Fold:
Amino acid sequence: MLLAIDIGNTNIVFGIHNDKEWVNDWRIQTDHLKTADEYEVIFRSLLTAGKICRTDISRIIVSSVVPSLVHPFREMLSGLFDNAVINQVNPDIYDKLPVKVLNPFEIGSDLVANAMAAYQKYGNYTMVIDFGTALTFTTIGGKSEILGVAIAPGLRTAVGALAGKTAQLPQIHIAAPPSVLGENTIHAIQSGIIFGYTGLVDSMIERTEQEIGESITVVATGGLSAVIAPLTKKIKACEPMLTLEGLLQINTFI
Structure:
């Protein structure tokens, strides 16, 4: 079985694939200060609760955009799965992939995984919008290459900044309000964030299509994709497992 791990700035998502399907997946909060031993306790308990035998895991693939956690995770994984082959997504492997990675030392490994999964399922002229700590737009062109990426603050990041930098605006639950015209503070913030970001997403898709001169297939992933996607004009599908799917596919090429 394969263990795929995506270490993000806010969450660490990981899942077990048995060569046919995902049998388990988990999401835990990223803690930059946790040690290898502390993460081992978390992984060991979740695997036990999920009735996963550690000796059945023969392959591990890791994507990380948190450099400080790469070493603790390698240490933890080597101890917990002593017979498994551990691979990490980095520029050393990009030339083996069917998707060409431009600026390999600039792009996040999670975006490469997203692009791999989207390309394999939807083909060329595809955009992946990842609603994470950052809101990212990754576009695949007509020659199976990642044409470029756009990055904006994620929805939770924007809400956190708004609450943290103002004296009277609170943290809110991120959901669509009943009206664009907020009649109270919470609905006002929800309107600005939800409908404002919906406009941002539609505008970025439109500008990308105009620049490349092609219509693109748009796929959304990330925790808040289900909130924004129904309000947009162009998002075709939400794929919550897209990054792990990409890691699964990358592992077959290395």
Remarks:
- The domain at 2-88 is CATH 3.30.420.40 (Nucleotidyltransferase; domain 5).
- The first helix runs from residue 36 to 49.
